Amino acid sequence: MFAPDHGFRVRRLYKLILRVHRGLPAELRILGDNYARDEFKRHKNCNSDEACVFLNEWTNYAINLAKQMKPLQQAKKKTVGEYLDPTLLDYMTEDQLIQLYQLHKAALGNDGPPDSTIDQQKK
């Protein structure tokens, strides 16, 4: 099913993500750490195909975030992250869309627009 070093690779990737999160502002770090921990727990017993996709996506995330955390990049751009390609929404399950929306709401915190405003923006 999995290579003998699979568990080691997953733990190493998880630790790398937490290390990269150290460069984020405090509130983003907490949000990112909690989200990563939950996702890694949820996918602990997934099949090998899902594990391959999961690890590739999280590896890409870690690489992209590490590039953005470089001091020179932070000096040029005052932002972290990138926009989600809207075409990816077509491939998401309903549960994934709900989770994405909840993450969106958590990222906005109390300062975000009310739900009705977001619903109107979607139309």
Automatic annotation (TrEMBL):
<keyword id="KW-0143">Chaperone</keyword>
<keyword id="KW-0809">Transit peptide</keyword>
<dbReference type="Pfam" id="PF13233">
    <property type="entry name" value="Complex1_LYR_2"/>
</dbReference>
<dbReference type="GO" id="GO:0034553">
    <property type="term" value="P:mitochondrial respiratory chain complex II assembly"/>
</dbReference>
<dbReference type="InterPro" id="IPR008381">
    <property type="entry name" value="SDHAF3/Sdh7"/>
</dbReference>
<dbReference type="GO" id="GO:0006105">
    <property type="term" value="P:succinate metabolic process"/>
</dbReference>
<keyword id="KW-0496">Mitochondrion</keyword>
<comment type="function">
    <text>Plays an essential role in the assembly of succinate dehydrogenase (SDH), an enzyme complex (also referred to as respiratory complex II) that is a component of both the tricarboxylic acid (TCA) cycle and the mitochondrial electron transport chain, and which couples the oxidation of succinate to fumarate with the reduction of ubiquinone (coenzyme Q) to ubiquinol. Promotes maturation of the iron-sulfur protein subunit of the SDH catalytic dimer, protecting it from the deleterious effects of oxidants. May act together with SDHAF1.</text>
</comment>
<comment type="subunit">
    <text>Interacts with the iron-sulfur protein subunit within the SDH catalytic dimer.</text>
</comment>
<dbReference type="GO" id="GO:0005758">
    <property type="term" value="C:mitochondrial intermembrane space"/>
</dbReference>
<protein>
    <recommendedName>
        <fullName>Succinate dehydrogenase assembly factor 3</fullName>
    </recommendedName>
</protein>
<dbReference type="GO" id="GO:0005759">
    <property type="term" value="C:mitochondrial matrix"/>
</dbReference>
<comment type="similarity">
    <text>Belongs to the complex I LYR family. SDHAF3 subfamily.</text>
</comment>
